[in-house]
Structures are given as structure tokens and as C-alpha cells.
Design a protein that fits this description.
Helix content: 40-55%
Distance between the termini: 24 Å
Number of strands: 4
Shape: globular
Structural class: alpha+beta
Strand order of the largest sheet: 2-1-3-4
CATH architecture of the largest domain: Up-down Bundle
């Protein structure tokens, strides 16, 4: 199994957490998103992932290029240590929480969006960072409200063990901390994050622990 990854990519970080939670070994293939004009843009990588993004997971059956699809595939193929609840409402809720991050927060702060803001729209570094903090803050406020209102939120995003939602939450908090967002406004997110990052599966997936870390 190969995972094409970049140490600071939050989408790749999600998949690394899921692989670790399931105890699955894999070969990490670094794709540097900044060097050489962005290695993800090079023809040899585009043959693997036409979207020119990370992560990409390859095994003997399939090549997948979206973190949610990758993690759900891993959950179905390797059902030990499930990352989705067994009941339909629980499964839907976990997907909802993960998609708040994957669909509402992350796309507005993706590297290619930030590049466009700087290179095409000529935003300053200060303006770019204000954009990042605004949209991460909006998204975290929504996620916090969902966690606060739902009794199914246990020690983790849903219940007493990590799910896909936690795999998505931890990398998003990492991004928020990179941009010096005050997490005190999000007590449920902060509580869940603190619980997760002490677990070996999450700690081993951290950007600082990757072979391509800088």
C-alpha cells in the first residue's frame, strides 16, 4: 500500500491517522507541494492523480484520491477498528461532522486557493492571513455548535472511540494553530483535540513525525 503524501497537508494527515488507527502499514511517498513548482503538478504525478492534489492511496485493487473516499474504503476493506458507527444515524452524524471540515472549512484555505489570492488577486500576506483566520473561524464555530448540541458527542466527536470525524478534526486544529487562531472559543473542539493528540495513532501521523517534515 502506498500513500502519496505531504507532511503538512491536512487531507493527507487525515488518512495517516486512519491508517494508524487501523494498524495498517504503508509506504509513504512524499510529494512536495512547494518544491520544483509543486511536485503535484508534474506529469508523472498527474498520471497517478489527475487532480494534482494529495493524498493518493494505491493498493493492489484501486487508486483513490479523496481523503473521505480513502478512509471509507479502508474502513470497509479492513473492518477491524471501525471508524464509522454501526447505526445509520450515527454513521450519518459522523459523516456530517467530517464534511463540515472537508467541505466548508478546508477548501477555502487550500494551498491552491491561497496561491490564487496572492498571485492573481494580489492580496498581501496580512490580507491572506485574515482570509484564512476568518474562514477557519467561521467553520470552527459551526463545528463547535454541532458538537455542543448533540448528546451523541462523547469523549470523542461521536461516542467513546475515534471515528472519521476525529481524523478530520485534528488536522484542522493543527491548521488553526499554525495561523494563531485562539482555540479558547471552541471548548468542545479543544477537549476532543487534546484527547486525540495523546493517542499514538494521532501522534504518529503528526506532520512533525513524517519523513518529509521540514
Amino acid at each position: 500500500m502506498k500513500l502519496y503524501t505531504y507532511f503538512r497537508s491536512s487531507a493527507a494527515y487525515r488518512v495517516r491517522i486512519a491508517l494508524n488507527l487501523k494498524g495498517l502499514s504503508y509506504e509513504a511517498v512524499p510529494v512536495h507541494l512547494l518544491k520544483d513548482g509543486g511536485q503535484q503538478r508534474q506529469d508523472d504525478y498527474r498520471q497517478i492523480n489527475p487532480s494534482a492534489l494529495v493524498p493518493t492511496l494505491q493498493d493492489d485493487r484501486i487508486t483513490l484520491t479523496q481523503s473521505m473516499a480513502i478512509i471509507e474504503y479502508l474502513d470497509e476493506r479492513y473492518p477491524a477498528v471501525p471508524l464509522l458507527p454501526q447505526d445509520p444515524p450515527g454513521r450519518a452524524r459522523v459523516r456530517e461532522l467530517a464534511q463540515i471540515i472537508a467541505c466548508d472549512i478546508h477548501p477555502l484555505n487550500n494551498l491552491r486557493v491561497l496561491r490564487h489570492l496572492v498571485h492573481e488577486l494580489k492580496l498581501s500576506e496580512e490580507q491572506k492571513n485574515a482570509w484564512i483566520r476568518h474562514w477557519i473561524g467561521e467553520g470552527l464555530a459551526s463545528l463547535e455548535a454541532h458538537l455542543a448540541r448533540d448528546p451523541a458527542a462523547g469523549p470523542f466527536c461521536h461516542g467513546s472511540s475515534p471515528t472519521i470525524a476525529d481524523c478530520f478534526l485534528v488536522p484542522q486544529v493543527f491548521n488553526a494553530q499554525r495561523f494563531e487562531i485562539d482555540m479558547a472559543a471552541y471548548p468542545n473542539i479543544s477537549r476532543i483535540h487534546a484527547l486525540c493528540v495523546d493517542m499514538p495513532a494521532f501522534a504518529g501521523a503528526h506532520p512533525s513525525q513524517q519523513p518529509d517534515a521540514e
